Amino acid sequence: MRHSQGRLPNRTDVPEPRAERLAVVAAQDRREYTTQTHDADLVVVGGGLAGSCAAITAARAGMRVVLVQDRPVLGGNSSSEVRLWILGATAHMGNNNRFAREGGVVDEVLVENTYRNRDGNPVIFDTILLEKVVEEPGITLLLNTAMVDVEMADTGDETHRIAGVTAFCSQNSTRYEITAPYFLDASGDGALGFLAGAAFRMGAEASAEFGEKFAPTDDYGHLLGHSIYFYSKDVGHPVRFTPPSYALADLSEIPRARSFATNVDGCRLWWIEWGGRLDTVHETETIKWRLWQVVYGVWNHLKNSGEFPDAENLTLEWVGTIPGKRESRRFEGLHMLRQDDVLDQTQHADAVAFGGWSIDLHPADGVFSEKPGSNHLHARGTYQIPYRCLVSRDVDNLFLAGRIISASHVAFGSTRVMATGAHGGQAAATAAALCLREGLLPAQLLAPDLMAELQRELLRTGQHIPQHALDDPDDLGRSARITASSEYVLGSLAAAGAPVALDVDRGQLLPLEAGPVPQVGLRVDVAAPTTLRVQLRRGARADDYTPDQVVGECAIDLEPGEQLVKVDLDAELDEPAYVVLCLLANPDVAVHASDLVVTGLVPLRHGGDQVADDRIGQPGLEFWTPVRRPAGRNIALTLDPPVRLGPPAAVSNGVDRPSGSGNAWIAAPDDPTPTLRLTWDEPQVVGRVELRFDTDFDHAMESVLYTHPEDAMPQCVSAFTVRADGRVLAEVEDHHQSAYRLVLDTPVTTSDLTVEVRGVHGNAPASLFAVRCYSDPDHRIVRDPGRETAIATAGLP
């Protein structure tokens, strides 16, 4: 029987009350705690976002997983105990990383949270993440359970290998002995790797070691500190606050105290940070107490200084009881990611994940520093994370996930954020499943054929790897003829609503075909005689969204009034690519916009620049960033000749998001019954159908504190029907996720499969990124009940 912590108990799981009214237990010399043993395929230590996503991934791949979490809730820094928003490569939509939200399990969690919890309640987020874990029957979840010891295997040689771990739950006074062939450390501080003797680093490398120009000086400090957040609430009547005796009385020590405001709390006060000059593992309690002093001192200042009359009705609703940690140990893997990997967007043969947060370093003195609270160094776009960073170099059955992966202090400034860590956790867990199936050690997956298989498995489950497309020999859809009832050919985006002022440079992201650029028509309102400057820009690659290459431009003289203008850019593209139609700022001009939302089209604004600074290796960039809905609307335009945006064949190209092209079938907006059809010359046995939908991978979906304009993304299909030779296989309502998987109880033999779209959540044409068909009804990496034999061949415990 599974341990009761593994899933929420059903009524039949609850034991009957004991009949005894009194238990009398005689004295003994000493007693032992109750001990339970577990044998698993994979032990995941740490139930933060990385560990939770890794456990879910491994269980879905067919592994038996024990997830050991030392807190009462899952999620780590994203949980209601800390309340930091989840973010990764989307970077609050503040840089040039388009369509960059992480895929796979972490995307599933974020999409579900936005759907149920668009106002960002951290307690609701707790329930969603816990639900995802307990729904997996392959996971035994041990909450409030700290790993306290490690048993190393006797390998008979100089290799180091973990045989088992010991954990203890203070809530049920139970000790757990857990064995497995594979272990994954997602504990944040690297507790498992530390006890197993794995090599690690703590602090910043000197600039000379990896040639990192952004490496900090001693004056700046070599570790990032912790933060504690607080929430306030307006209760509608005056509230008195008497500070505790330990509250910081003199805020003159805090240079940024002058910027406090009553309308800012929670994660937006991330800069209430301290501890970077202490041991951020062993002195965490010291750091926590100092941060409590600061938080209560800040609140006393807001309530009692007399400078904030609008604070009269505010109460201190919540203060974190544990700090949000940024940095402690980083473990040495088979490769150490470094500044050049991030900024040069290095291509790795073993790429399994990606990042895109800036290199974000903070002064070690935190809130007490005179320096800016953070320093950011942005790359042109996303960068790959290689598998070698997720494997310990000296404990040969240990995977690494979360903020402890193998990266220099500088590169860690980017990889440390939670969505990036979770994405890597999924990759490590998938690798563990392949190792289990093949009886291999983690490092052996670097063989080219095995690495290709790992990347294929990740892409199958929705994990995005930049510059990689799924080449799936098992997908029957690749041999089908793919047609549709219609496809979207962009000839015009109709104007609706108020025009948008060109108060800043504005742009429209468009995927265009190779060849001459179409003539563009714009409708504008002009206040005074002026000249409108228009440019067409692109990046260095088809999927590079830093538009610093001008491929065409023109200047158009305008007279006052509303008018249609023709823009002849006299430009040609040598390959299909994303481009930006740039309308440079002009206070006398407003451009008409459209309410239609279209897969792969994004309205942009010039949101500032990153000035080149060779002293720290900083590239010069213009940021052309999205405008969040509802304010963000596409520019109304015409294209002559029209551009084909949504060909049906795109659903079989192996890329499940825009990347260099739209990569989607998009139906015509006026198609009453958008339908995609796959036909084969010979009947096929279909046991499983997998669909991929557009949930706006450009939307950041911060998990807490931020609010979102919609619960379901407007581009996402809401209702659809799947048929085989006219027979209904599934009718789905209220759909909102990126992925849908139809597993048939009985496979069907068919030469025709259709997906009919019956609804879309917003004002958007129907679209699909992928339709895949398989004979195998339920693909799992690990399905062999005799897998212990394979493990033994590798000499694993």
TrEMBL record:
Keywords linked to the UniProt accession: 4Fe-4S, Iron, Iron-sulfur, Metal-binding, Oxidoreductase
Taxonomic superkingdom: Bacteria
InterPro entries: FAD/NAD-bd_sf (IPR036188), HdrA-like (IPR039650)
Key word DNA-binding present: no
A GO term, aspect molecular function: metal ion binding
PANTHER family, A to Z: COB--COM HETERODISULFIDE REDUCTASE IRON-SULFUR SUBUNIT A (PTHR43498:SF1), FERREDOXIN:COB-COM HETERODISULFIDE REDUCTASE SUBUNIT A (PTHR43498)
UniProt name for this protein: Fumarate reductase/succinate dehydrogenase flavoprotein domain protein
Source organism of this protein record: Beutenbergia cavernae (strain ATCC BAA-8 / DSM 12333 / CCUG 43141 / JCM 11478 / NBRC 16432 / NCIMB 13614 / HKI 0122)
High-level lineage: Bacteria, Bacillati, Actinomycetota, Actinomycetes, Micrococcales
